[in-house]
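Exercise 7. Given the encoded structure of a 128-residue chain, write a plausible sequence.
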């Protein structure tokens, strides 16, 4: 009798879980019908082509190109980014140098790494 009760309780619990999963699928289908997919990167590229320049825009474009293994494009975006400012996180120095190495601009990449080393030494001295 006790085994039947345990089996019955387990069946009830699992049936609620299965019903909830099907419900979520229908909800997401309804939501996706309301919204259109927008390719944000292409939109950012169009904005940059019109002449708009900002640190945030170039960071997003460079990061997107870098993540999609388009390092030649990433080097161009990071080049424009570094032309605007040099007060950036160390990850941008590394990504820019790696992108430059991809397009065989090793001397410029070495200079960027050297700037990164000088910047990190300055940060360490300030913390101490």
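Solution.
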């Amino acid at each position: 009798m006790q085994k039947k009760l345990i089996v019955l309780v387990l069946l009830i619990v699992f049936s609620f879980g299965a019903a909830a999963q099907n419900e979520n699928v229908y909800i997401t289908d309804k939501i996706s019908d309301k919204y259109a997919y927008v390719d944000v990167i292409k939109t950012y590229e169009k904005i940059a082509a019109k002449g708009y320049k900002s640190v945030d825009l170039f960071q997003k474009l460079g990061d997107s190109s870098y993540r999609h293994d388009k390092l030649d494009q990433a080097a161009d975006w990071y080049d424009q980014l570094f032309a605007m400012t040099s007060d950036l996180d160390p990850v941008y120095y590394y990504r820019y140098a790696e992108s430059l190495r991809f397009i065989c601009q090793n001397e410029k990449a070495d200079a960027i790494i050297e700037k990164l080393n000088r910047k990190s030494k300055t940060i360490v001295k300030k913390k101490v």
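Remark. The chain is about 80% helix and 0% strand. Students should compare their own answers with the one above.
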